[in-house]
Amino acid sequence: MSASDTDDQRILLIDGHAMAFRAFFALPADGFSDGRGQATNAVYGFTRMLINVVASERPTHVAVAFDLPGGTFRDRIYDQYKGGRDETPPAFHGQIDLIMQVLDALGVRWLTYEDYEADDIIATLATRAEAAGDEALIVSSDRDAIQLVGAKVTLLQPIKGVTEMRRMTPAAVEEKYGIPPERYPDLAALVGEAADNLPGVPGVGPKTAAKWLTQYGDLPGLIAHAGEIKGKAGQSLRDHLEDVERNRLMNAAYTTLDLPEDPAHYSLGGGDRARVLEVFDDLAFGDTIRRDLPATLLGEDPQESGGPAPEEAEVLAVDGPDALRELLGEEGGLLALDVVEDVRGGPLMGLATPSARGAIALSSLDSETSTALGAALEEAAEIRVADAPAVRSWLAENGYRLGAQVRDLSLESFVLRPGARSYDAEALASDLGGASFEPKPRKPAASTLQKESAEVRAEHIARAGGRLAATAAALHPAAEELTARTGEAPWARRILDELEQPLQRVLETMHERGIAIDEQALAALREEFEGFVAQAKREAGAIVGEEVNLASPKQLQVVLFETLALPTTRKISSGHSTDAESLTDLQESLDPESSGHQFLSWLLRFREMSKLTGYLVGLDKVVDAGSRVHTTFQQTAAATGRLASTEPNLQNIPVRTAEGQRIRDAFVAGEGFETLLTADYSQIEMRIMAHLSEDAGLIEAFNSGEDLHNFVASRVFGVSPDAVDPAMRSKTKAVSYGLAYGLSAFGLSRQLRISRAEATALRDGYFERFGGVRDYLHHTVETARTTGYTETILGRRRYLPDLTSDNRQRRENAERVALNSPIQGSAADIIKLAMLRVESRMRAAELSSRMLLQVHDELVVEVAAGELDQVREIVEEGMGSAYQLSVPLDVGVGIGRTWREAAH
DNA sequence: TCTCAAACGTA
DNA sequence: CGTACGTTTGAGAA
Asked: Do A173 and A77 sit in the same domain of this protein?
């Protein structure tokens, strides 16, 4: 390193444990969680602090020092060292590991040193920096760090929380304590340090200590003259000289630890933004902290990374044919775009070639420009977008069409790394395309919009356009990045080419078709259900005699556990649960004549009926003029590869209860069609389990023709199949499905309401007879731990970094996910293959009948007159032979005028 | 106006 | 202390 480089080196040294601990207490533990029960408040606060300090202090090098668990040499000197501290709060556990993960992603070095404390690491590095003439900044709440302050060493002491810091320079130390920094350990030895359980000289505080030290120069000088000191304090000092000497020994920082010498080891810039965002996703961190990630921390130098930041690049306002021509340039062909329905500007489009970007307000386009734009979109050699179906449908509404060469980057990104927080255009632009964005402006109130001046309004529109243009522009590098990544991942290429990309068009078509609703039936049902809701409300209200919102768990808690003084239910974060299971249990413990019992009956009735009413209201909101509802099948929502259905969700329409089923009666074959056909896979997950585990018993179960759960139960309980009673069957069934979810003996006992011992025996008995299943499950987790991912039968991956976490909860959660993902994911693969087959065969046969819905293991088809036999054949065959497992794929088919009737 | 937790529907 | 989702609601933050 050259002399000029070393001139402006600044190393930031952080006491990791101390700061994490402060962050933990500064932020509410239950306010920050990764969504899986792991608190992340300390991780968040620490990361926030790091970002702030790096942004404001601009260090060139950073190191974070952590204490190791177990003792240090200081504990051997004094066995009470740091004694008397409270237990580490449970919610703090695991957060240090997570902080280390964040630091790794940021490329920030963190250090530990066997037998020494974080302070010694900091002392060593600070001393080195000083010797080299470099600056050092220490962030620590530990007072032992004060002794390190010098001309080039500044201490940042947190005052409040972890963001407000006091700068301790030599002058500041002198002013506060009346002695120079290097004398501080002497002072501390006299005064003592309660946090470390180091008692000082009774009756001597910082003032007296400073006075003595000033008088006698330093601690040895003072001790040499201890006999001369008068008064109570003098006697006290003489009585406690041993303590003082011990304290001084304890609080001296070690400055000679053997740590990496090369300054480059600690330099900033090894960060990986994508990795950081991945970790932030995992921690469920919000947008604010992402936005504030300084480029310097990641080693991204905006000045040298190829021109100005994306949002500052020139954005062409496309307001006429010339501007459009300028934007498209000569290259014409490679485009990227992002669109939005802006509250002020209406339909806005960001359009970019690899070298230029523009913003277009579609509503104000003249016809010539609009025609030219339409031609460009249809003829482009490749158009890169996030979420092609959404863009296509948005463009269609505005009178444009996309050509055939559309590349959906969301889909590619999803297959490569499922489970991300978002795959929208901005997420791709920033995670893969190197763009960065201001936080999204919040939606203005209608009144604000009305008062807005034309200038302000235009400025807002221009900003929205600029943002879209920046997003579109960043989709080009994102696309290149995805090309590179899929190039190295043949498994992903195959899933994309053979499954997801062709399926995307099928899903779009299904969305466009929609499913017909009998609006009259819907309205009648709604009226009836609303009547039940009102009745339940009335009756429940009459019992407690006060106004209570039954939809408010908080108000319910008051009524149940205070007004009615019922026994409390299981605890949740906000008090006690009022979910149906808890309330049913509670009700069973009460006298049927009691008011509590009756209140609960009406409450449960209210819950059930308002839930059902909610479906009807929801459907009513989205039904179109032709009495059809058009769900959107989301292809990048479920990490296992399953589809999800939104607006409305038609994958969770009630089916279990008779009243719920009446809602299914409102889904009907539409005009011009004769009937609905549903076809579902029976026990597909268990069949996949049999296939993957190659368990001979389970495979035999499926080949025997016997009812699956009956067969398995007869083996588990060692009785003949006809001796299996319903209780045995249902217990076995619970184990079978529980296993695919990673169910524990505890969970099983709770679900079946049996003892732990009985649950354990049940599971052991199961594994004894179906050893292949046990071996498979074990092997799945172990393989995933080694490779880092699980795989489906088609090779679809799911990455599970938490399998090696030191945090038990995270690890065990990841293990359950690892058990379930290949099974759920393979089932998703199979029905997706089936959908491709069914759709293409129906089109090839030129049938009018058409596939409308997918509900994970079920397809719903609308059948035209005279086509039933053909459709049934295509669906049965298409689903049944979608994939060759080692057990047959059994498909059940039902026919009916309504969705309920078509069940079978 | 937005975000979160609780509750609950499906496979 | 069983996986995967989406929607609605109330409550509290901003």
From this structure: yes
pLDDT digit string (tens) for A442-478? 788 777 888 888 888 998 999 999 999 999 999 999 9
| Spatial distance between the Cα atoms of A727 and A735, rounded to a whole number of angstroms | 12
pLDDT tens for A399-427 read: 999 999 999 999 999 999 999 989 999 99
Report the range out of A213-227, A421-435, A668-682 with the highest average pLDDT. Answer: A668-682
Residue A552, Ramachandran bin (φ over 0: left; ψ between -120 and 50: alpha; else beta): beta
Q: Is the CB of A860 under 7 A from strand B?
A: no
pLDDT value, residue A450: 82
Clarify whether residues A80 and A207 are in a common domain.
Answer: yes
Same structural domain, A321 and A205: no
Least confident range of A275-284, A662-671, A782-791, A838-847: A275-284
Are A260 and A327 part of one and the same domain?
Answer: no
Give the tens place of pLDDT for each residue, A64-119. Answer: 999 888 777 787 777 777 666 666 777 787 888 889 989 988 889 999 999 899 99
Which CATH number does the domain housing residue A367 bear? 3.30.420.10
Q: How far is it, in rounded angstroms, from Cα A780 to Cα A600?
A: 44
Q: Which domain holds residue A212?
A: 3-266
- 271-290 on A, CB < 7 Å from strand B: 286
Contact in structure between A790 and A784 (CB atoms under 8 Å): yes
Q: Total structural domains in chain A?
A: 4
> What percentage of chain A carries pLDDT values higher than 90?
65
Average pLDDT over residues A741-750: 92
- Please indicate, yes or no, if residue A549 is contained in any of the structural domains: yes
What value, to the nearest 5°, has the Cα angle with vertex A756 and ends A752 and A760? Answer: 90
Mean pLDDT of A25-41: 73
Q: For residue A843, is it within any domain?
A: no
Q: What is the pLDDT of residue A283?
A: 83
Angle at A635 between CA A632 and CA A641, to 5 degrees: 135
**Of the ranges A53-67, A150-164, A202-216, which is most confident?**
A53-67
The CA distance from A825 to A797, in Å, is: 9
Residues 644-683/A with CB within 7 Å of nucleic chain B are: 649, 651-657, 660
User: Does residue A611 reach within 7 angstroms of strand B, measured from its CB?
Assistant: yes
Judge if A325 and A462 occupy the same domain.
yes
- Asked if residue A648 has a cis previous peptide bond (ω within 30° of 0), the answer is yes
Alpha-carbon span A374 to A362, nearest angstrom:
11
DSSP per-residue letters across A542-583: HHHTS---TT-HHHHHHIIIIIS-PPP--EETTEE--SHHHH
Among A578, A596, A626, the domain boundary falls at A626
DSSP A498: I
Q: Write the DSSP assignment of A621-642 as a string of letters.
A: HH--TTSEE--EEESSS-TTS-
Nearest CA to A339 out of A367, A322, A321, A359 is that of A359
Report protein residues in contact with nucleic acid strand C, where contact means CB under 7 Å. A 37, 419, 549, 551-552, 554-555, 614, 617-618, 621, 634, 637-640, 642, 644-649, 651-652, 734, 737-738, 741-744, 746-747, 750-751, 813, 816-817, 820-821, 824
Q: Could you tell me if A103 and A43 are in contact, meaning their C-beta atoms sit under 8 angstroms apart?
A: no
Burial A550-571 (b: 16+ CB within 10 A, else e): beebeebbebbbebbebeebee
A797 and A693 housed in the same domain? yes
Residue where a domain stops, chosen among A783, A802, A823: A823
Residue A452 lies inside a defined structural domain of this protein? no
Q: What are phi and psi of A94, to 5 degrees?
A: 85, -15
Q: Considering only CA atoms, which of A73, A104, A85, A75 is closest in space to residue A18?
A: A85
**CATH number of the domain encompassing residue A198:** 3.40.50.1010
Residue A866 in any domain: the answer is no
- The answer to whether strand B lies under 7 Å from the CB of residue A449 is no
Strands A316-317 and A357-361, by their bridges, are parallel
